[in-house]
Amino acid sequence: MFDDVLDAVEPLQHSSFWADSGKLIMSSNAPKILHERHGYPINFLDCQTLLGILYAHLRECQDKVLVNKRVTQVTHHPTHIVAECEDGSSYQGDLIVGADGVRSGVRQQMWNYMVSLGLSKEIAPDMRTMISEYDCVFGISPETPGLIPGRTHRTFGQGYSFLTISSKNGRVYWFFFTKMARKYASHEIPRFRPEDVDEHVAAWLQKPLTGDVHLEPSTKELL
Length: 223
Ligand SMILES: Cc1cc2nc3c(=O)[nH]c(=O)nc-3n(C[C@H](O)[C@H](O)[C@H](O)COP(=O)(O)OP(=O)(O)OC[C@H]3O[C@@H](n4cnc5c(N)ncnc54)[C@H](O)[C@@H]3O)c2cc1C
Fold this sequence. Notes:
The chain has helices at 2-7, 30-38, 47-58, 105-116, 120-129, 194-201; strands spanning 14-19, 24-28, 71-76, 81-85, 90-93, 131-141, 151-157, 160-166, 172-185. It is of the alpha+beta class. The two termini are 34 Å apart. The model has no long low-confidence stretch (mean pLDDT 94).
């Protein structure tokens, strides 16, 4: 599978770290050294591309993957569990493994089940573990002058940071993090509404992703 991943990426070779002023803090070939030491490079690619590669390699087992299913309820029985889905279908098995992400409904149902068994105290620490302190606006952009494939950049400022990775054919993966006003527990982590994003990023549009590339590219930085 990894050969197929390698075909889709430009392995990382080089990283640079920038200050809020656009001044270079340091530059290094740490990603290249990591590759040499560990035998594998650090790669960035679209999630869909990776899922496509994994799925293709399932070959004759592809029919085990059922798409567009939404688990709504898990019921426990002495000998088995049943997962019920939004479309009315249900599946029986020996156990259920919740891999449904950070806002996992299956995990919530497992917690509910434990509470019903009188185990509230035992699961209390688990329920408090996950918190969110920073938000993130992220995106994928086409080739951008000044961003070279195989290079990554980080910018650090008061209360914010950027991460930018340029991969195959100049495809740019970028992330903009800011510190939120308070810490949020997992059940209350807020989400951006699409209409809030422009306002959120406005104050940072001229901040440097590198010494001469900004979050909002000037006309000369656009292709
Ligand atoms: C923009 C971005 C970039 C990232 N980059 C990296 C990176 O470079 N390297 C890295 O290691 N990590 C990265 N991460 C983090 C990584 O994506 C997550 O840690 C990882 O995807 C978590 O995997 P997961 O299987 O727990 O959940 P997810 O990948 O979120 O998958 C959960 C799945 O469950 C499904 N689901 C949800 N609810 C239900 C339900 N009720 N019934 C059925 N299915 C359901 C969802 O549709 C989804 O398909 C990134 C995350 C983001 C957002």
